[in-house]
Amino acid sequence: MEDKNxxxxxxxxxxxxxxTQQAPSPEEQExxxxxxDVRIVSPAxxxxxxxxxxxxxxxxxxxxxxxxxxxxxxxxTVGWGETEVDRSGGQTTYTQYTTEFVGADxxxxxxxxxxxxxxxxxxxxxxxxxxxxxxxxxxxxILGTDRSGMDIMARLMYGGRISLTISFLAVxxxxxxxxxxxxxxxxxxxxxxxxxxxxxxVINCVPTLPIMLIFSAILDAYKADYPxxxxxxxxxIMGLLTLISWTGTxxxxxxxxxxxxxxxYMVAADALGMSPARKIFxxxxxxxxxxxxxxxxxxxxxxxxxxxxxxxxxxGVPIPYASWGNMINAAKDTDVLQYYANVWLPSGICIIMAVxxxxxxxxxxxxxxxxxxxx
Length: 375
What we know:
two-stranded antiparallel sheet, MetI-like fold, 2 domains, mainly alpha, 375 residues
């Protein structure tokens, strides 16, 4: 009996030891609870968090959204068209002429002639003044009118549509051409790379602004014979700009593909017998997209400045159609520059806001898409 009792005591002691070994400590229990609370975050969510963590990125995004609403939604609220002229008449101006003569009696007489002129077009109307639109309604000119009697606020909105649309189209075409040429050069290498890179070197030697000035002069020379060339001059010139500005994107894509094509997944793609087009555009270019998105965002600001420069030089959108560039062109007149800041200053502010917005967004995307960023 004593032997049985001793064996039972030994078994109970062993079970107690096993229970103490298997029971987790309070610290281990807290760790297991914390593990259950951990959520797996996707790379896209991390990018968004990094992007919105930067104040400048958020400011740039807000500025872009406001500009987008201003130029695409705003024209429905002003009551004026892009080329609509306010024919309600402007302010009456008076001109005084004084003439002196000696009468027959030897006395000197002074004759004062007062002439008044009221223009049929409401030109250079002050801000927050009223005019009559084509429907006969009395509508406010929030920013006044220009020398042609057209509402500045409406032209600012419609001009923003042209400037932003042209810039987006130029950047998209520029990027697509750069992806194709850079992808071919980086993937195939050898003589294909040499030929494409020599073309890039030649294009980089071309002075951009003089070429656009010469091309615009050629289009003006054929304005009488081919009016559509003059009407769509800005689109033709920006297309020319696209043809000579894809080289930076091509170099970026080429450099990245030269590195990525030696990775293990590309060796696996070769083993699976994938076509070169599938490997370039389905595997290599996809991995270059973060850098391309940043490059596109930063290029938008440059394209807007190009369009503004062409408009200021009378090489952009032909009047009476509006763009931010040809609205600044009014500042060439010293009287307008000095006395009518409401004619040219708002378009300059819009250009500055657009360029800053795209640069802020580009900087934020560059930091957010960088996998080395820890903060």
